[in-house]
From TrEMBL:
Catalyzes the formation of phosphatidylethanolamine (PtdEtn) from phosphatidylserine (PtdSer). Plays a central role in phospholipid metabolism and in the interorganelle trafficking of phosphatidylserine. It comes from Cannabis sativa. It is found in: Endomembrane system. InterPro entries: C2_dom, C2_domain_sf, EF-hand-dom_pair, EF_Hand_1_Ca_BS, EF_hand_dom, PS_Dcarbxylase, PSD-B, PSD_type2_pro. Its cofactor is pyruvate. The keyword Lipid metabolism applies. Pfam families: C2 (PF00168), EF-hand_7 (PF13499), PS_Dcarbxylase (PF02666). This is Phosphatidylserine decarboxylase proenzyme 2. It is an enzyme of class 4 (lyase). It comes from the Eukaryota. GO terms for biological process: phosphatidylethanolamine biosynthetic process; protein autoprocessing. GO terms for molecular function: calcium ion binding; phosphatidylserine decarboxylase activity. The C2 domains have an essential, but non-catalytic function. They may facilitate interactions with other proteins and are required for lipid transport function.
Amino acid sequence: MGNDSSRLHLPFRHGQRPGKASSSSSSLHKPLTADHFAGIALLTLRSAEMKFKDKWLACVSFGEQTFRTQISDQTDKPVWNSEKKLLLEKDGPHVARISVFETNTVSSNTLVGYCEINLLEYLTQDPVETEKSFARRILSIVDYNQDGMLSLSEFSDLINAFGNRLAAEKKEELFKAADKNGDGVVSMDELATLLASQQEKEPLITCCPVCGEVLEVSDKLNNMIHLTLCFDEGTGNQVMEGGFLTDTQASYGWMFKLSEWVHYSSYDVGLNSGSSASHIVVLDRRSKTLVEETIDSKIVLSMRAIYQSKIGIGLMDKGAKEFLLSISEKQGKKMNTTESAKDIPKFGQINLAEAKYPVEHFKTFNEFFVRELKPGVRPIACKERDDVAICGADSRLMAFTTVDDSKRFWIKGRKFSMKGLLGPEISSNEFDHGSLVIFRLAPQDYHRFHSPVSGTIEKFIDIPGALYTVNPIAVNSKYCNVFTENKRVVSIISTAEFGKVAFIAIGATMVGSITFSKKAGDHVKKGDEFGYFSFGGSTVICVFEKDSITIDEDLLANSARPLETLVCVGMKLGVAKNSSNFELPNLETFAIN
């Protein structure tokens, strides 16, 4: 690999500043304990075979970060030879999403396919052997003549780079200790063994030879993590470019970046991404990876014009509400015609393998839109425990301990209140200070909703209203009160574990029809189908009585950022506070098929 001595940082002299450690991914990880550390994966993207010619790039999304390759010039069999090291924590992200984009346009690129890999399944190497492998990589950097042996001078350069003055003063002694067979040179294995054994006694490495960061001598685990992430593997492969949130962002061309700068729009998670930016970024709970909802820019601009200004809302009061109701009704009728079935193949981003029936079974688009799923594809967490509530819809979820929290972080309508949400026929006293969970369904989602708890349905109350969009652009608007003004149906479920639970199905633009599978007086088991929305996006809100539920911490933490969490029916939502098993650890977040 040639002489790499230029990559080594010698110990700092007085007054000299350390190297730019922030540029290294190793400096970005938080300190870990052995109980939380799972391993470090080296993911290499080599090439792909395509069915047509173009220029291609690939992205790897892992947790809340995305990396990308350079664009390959080979048009039918792109070759990237790019790699990235990923730190795995036992309770952190495990799934890497690999996406491939064609790059034939100036402003945006087209996703042609993706796959997901559970990296934990590949961590089978013995930890001791991993340390030795890493040590061999470090030592090979100063093997200038590439003979697999280190002379005394090569060994001295390496010890100097480690930044340990005491070790530097006894280089010859250490060299002799490593040279087990006394042949005057040290093999990679000999020096790797010395390094591993010395780390247990008196660590040799007190300074990272790559970034120059001073290492905490007593923290052996995090030193190993830091050094492993800092050093390249000597493969000659290109390290992927980072700094992106999602694969869609990483794939954009230079024209998009220019337009972002011109419009002062930022790519970020949280409220800005929903209310003012043109990107909605959510966190997939299963893979713990950020994903992006794409919305046509013209639609974004029109929604901002309507929902983010007094003038736009003023137009709503002068007839636009009736217009939305009218077009939703017309669209609903259109989607019930046999002619609408031709639009089914064009409706992407759906896992058809989960559907109970094949595509040709559906005679209208709405039949397809409200499709059922195969039994078992949405397993119920802690199925036999009624003191555990579950997520009631495939959706983007926001959860808040109190209604006040929801208004501080997410719902910006000035007139939002629990009384306004539930309507005049239901007393809001029991729910005024309760917990609130919002399930926002996008058009591509499975549109049947399920009961989050077990209990008896007391009543259904129909509340007429408008059909505003439930997009965060409207929900985050201080001028609009989506949840209290839209058409909705409020049901009350009486439970033994959570008291009363309000379940509100809210219509939205293009959703004029809310159908229920149950009736008042029916007993429901958590996970039972409760109803469905016809074509369009829509929302379900669950309200729990005060101090009746402890919502899962990851959902609350994401919502406080504020960041929507992508969930599926059956995932764990929280535990009843009066549960005798409340302190039971390791409750299933996801049920196992």
